Amino acid sequence: MKSDRLLSILLLLQTRGRVPARELAQRLEVSPRTVYRDVEALSAAGVPVYAERGRHGGIALLPGFRTDVTGMTTDEARALFVLAAQGAHTALGLDDALGSALRKVMAALPAPHRPAAELTGRRILVDPDRWLGGPRPAADLDALQTAVFTDLRLRIRYRHSGETRLRTYTVDPYGLVAKAGTWYLVADRRGRPQLFRADRVASAAVTDAPVRRRPGVELAEVWQQLRRQVEDRPADFRVTARIRRDRLDLAVRILGGALTGPPRTGDPDGSGNGKGSGKGHGNGDGPGNEDRNGDEQWAVIELAFPVLRAVRQLLQFGDALEVLDPPEARRVLAEAAAGITALYAADPPPP
Question: Residue 238: beta bridge partners?
Fold first, then answer.
């Protein structure tokens, strides 16, 4: 609606100052011509707005002009009180500021909308952390925040996953991202985007040198690029396994990123003989013995891993999961299981 668009332009100008017409058009998903018509409409309504031509031009309000915007809808008021990342405010030291800001927003809301906003804050809670995530290392965000907001280069000592030694980098930060309760620094290193887990930054020092970001590139764009690199990482090693149905939900939660399709039910090898792959020869109570005749207790899952050794994570399901194919994956698991058996069969070391 045009009224919503005019209000959006007014809010953007109050927040940002001078804004290029093309940027306003992109944000509002209209043409620059429409933006200029909206500016004329605002001016006709008494809003002191003007447009400047040229390379450094744009649309702006006269200095000192402010307006109290009370045209908020009920849904907009409710949305402000659904706090999707409460842990983020704590990590950034903004808990008190958040509470104060919400009290001010509540006081500024039109009276009919206040009950809905207050009820939403009491009835809706969003917890960004995963179940059974365990304690996370504390991340010191002070220096990272300083570099992000002052546009200065950052020197960090960083430990990569699977390494013990620290590496030193000078980076150009775009910003911080909180994903599933974990903080990441998004930065360029030598002109190329890179992701750094904040809890692996052993130390960080803000330099006096101005940041050297790539022109016209913003945090959201770099984050999406890095996220795609992580999510689209090739996983060429395919595995077929069967899992007891009473462990299937747990497996889907834990292995969700490795699953290549929905679980299947019925005979694992599709032969109808109820014997699975025929590769198990257990003599106990595990999946290699009498449960071969009870395929209704099993579901078949297809998985993809980046490397062969990654299949060892399937050991956490014990005898509730059996890899059916390929043979090399079964060998890796058998060797790992033999090593565990030997470790615990020996006498424990002295305390």
Answer: 304
Tell me how far apart the alpha carbons of residues 64 and 9 are, in angstroms, rounded to a whole number. 17
What is the rounded CA–CA span in Å between residue 139 and residue 63? 40
Q: CA 24, CA 39: separation in Å to the nearest integer?
A: 11
Rounded distance, CA 48 to CA 55, Å?
Answer: 22
Instruction: Let me know the angle formed at the C-alpha of 44 by 38 and 50, rounded to the nearest 5 degrees.
Output: 65
Handedness of CA 335, 340, 344, 350 (dihedral sign): positive
285: exposed, middle or buried (C-beta count within 10 Å: 0-12, 13-18, 19+)?
exposed
Segments in 232-326 forming alpha helices (H)? 248-255
Cβ neighbours around 204 below 10 Å, total: 22
Does the pTM surpass 0.85? The reply is no
Phi-psi region of 158 (alpha: psi -120 to 50; beta: other; left: phi over 0): beta
Which residue shows structure tokens 């996983």?
Answer: 235
pLDDT digits (tens, 9 = 90+) for 203-219: 999 999 999 999 989 99
What is the average per-residue pLDDT within 135-152?
85
CA distance 322 to 288: 9
The percent of residues above 90 in pLDDT, for the chain, comes to 38
Q: Please give the pLDDT value at position 280.
A: 43
